Automatic annotation (TrEMBL):
InterPro entries for the chain: MetI-like, MetI-like_sf
Domain ABC transmembrane type-1: 78-267
Name of this chain's protein: Carbohydrate ABC transporter permease
Membrane topology designation: Multi-pass membrane protein
GO biological process: transmembrane transport
Entry GO CC: plasma membrane
C-alpha cells in the first residue's frame, strides 16, 4: 500500500515551500510598491500621518515636473547614464575578455605572476585608488567629460578573473581546429571563442551595465558640471540641506530603475547560466 502519511508530508512540504516563496516575493516587491505609490503622490500624502495604500488623486503631473525642472537636467542625465553604461559595458567586455583569454591561452612564463597581480588588485580598497585616479583624470583634462566617467573603470580585476576561469574550461579542440585553418590567437578569439560564448558575455554584460548605471561616487566627483551629471547624481540633487522634494525623489527613482528592470528581464535567463559557466572550480 502507498504510504499515505509520507504523501501528505510531501504535499504539506510543497505547500509550505510555495507559501514561503510567495511571502519572500511579496517582501521583495514592497520597496517597488512604495516607490510607485510615492512617485504618484504629493509630499503631503507621503509624509502625512494617515496612511493610504494608494493616492486618492494620482499625480501624473509629477512626470512632467521631473523632466521640466530647470534646476536639474534629468533627461540629459538619463542620456548620460545610458551612454556611460553602454560604453562602459562594451569596453569592459572587450578589455577584460582579451586579458582573460590571454592569461588562459597564450603561453607566457610570467602569465601566472600577472594573474596573481590581477588578483591582488581585488584586495585593494577602492578608496585607496580614488584620489590617484582623480589626479590622473584631472591632469588629462577629463573632468566633466565622458572620457573621465568611462575610461578609468574599463578594467575590472574580478571580471578579468571570471573570463580567465571561463576560457580555461572552453574546449581547446575548437581553437586547435581554427589554428589548422590558419587563424592566430586573435582570429580564434574573435571567430571561434566569442560566438560560442555569447551566454557568458551576456551575463557579464548584465552585471557590468547595472554596476555602471548605479555608480554614484565617481560620477559625483568627475561630473562637476550639470552637463556631465549621471542619473544617480541628478537624483541626489533633490535632497539638500534646505529642502527635500519627496515626490520628485520617488518619481526620479522609479524612472531611473526602469532601464535596469528591462535589461534584467531581457537578459535574466543568461545571468545564472553564464555565472555557472565561469569554471571557478578549475
Amino acid at each position: 500500500m502507498p504510504n499515505r502519511k509520507g504523501g501528505r508530508r510531501g504535499v504539506l512540504g510543497s505547500a509550505g515551500l510555495y507559501f514561503a516563496t510567495a511571502v519572500c516575493a511579496l517582501l521583495f516587491l514592497v520597496p517597488f510598491y512604495l516607490i510607485v505609490r510615492n512617485a504618484l503622490s504629493t509630499d503631503a500624502e507621503i509624509t502625512g500621518e494617515n496612511w493610504q495604500w494608494f493616492p486618492t488623486d494620482i499625480q501624473w503631473g509629477n512626470v512632467t515636473e521631473l523632466f521640466d525642472d530647470p534646476t536639474v537636467p534629468f533627461g540629459r542625465s538619463l542620456g548620460n547614464s545610458a551612454v556611460v553604461g553602454i560604453l562602459h559595458t562594451l569596453g569592459t567586455l572587450l578589455v577584460c575578455s582579451l586579458a582573460g583569454y590571454g592569461l588562459a591561452r597564450i603561453p607566457y612564463r610570467h602569465a601566472n605572476k600577472i594573474f596573481y597581480a590581477v588578483l591582488v588588485t581585488l584586495m585593494v580598497p577602492a578608496a585607496v585608488t580614488f584620489v590617484p585616479s582623480f589626479v590622473l583624470v584631472s591632469s588629462l583634462g577629463w573632468v566633466s567629460s565622458m572620457q573621465g566617467l568611462i575610461v578609468p573603470g574599463l578594467f575590472s580585476g574580478f571580471t578579468c578573473f571570471l573570463f580567465r576561469q571561463y576560457f580555461l574550461g572552453f574546449p581547446k579542440e575548437l581553437e586547435e581546429a581554427a589554428r589548422v585553418d590558419g587563424l592566430g590567437y586573435w582570429g580564434a578569439y574573435w571567430r571561434i571563442v566569442v560566438p560560442n560564448s555569447l551566454n557568458f558575455f551576456a551575463a557579464i554584460a548584465t552585471i557590468t551595465f547595472i554596476s555602471g548605471w548605479n555608480a554614484f561616487l565617481w560620477p559625483l566627483v568627475i561630473g562637476q558640471d550639470q552637463e556631465a551629471w549621471t542619473v544617480q547624481v541628478a537624483l541626489s540633487s533633490y535632497m539638500t540641506n534646505q529642502t527635500v522634494n519627496f515626490h520628485l525623489i520617488f518619481m526620479a527613482t522609479a524612472v531611473s530603475i526602469l532601464p535596469l528592470v528591462l535589461v534584467f528581464l531581457f537578459l535574466q535567463r543568461w545571468l545564472v547560466q553564464g555565472v555557472a559557466q565561469t569554471g571557478i572550480k578549475g
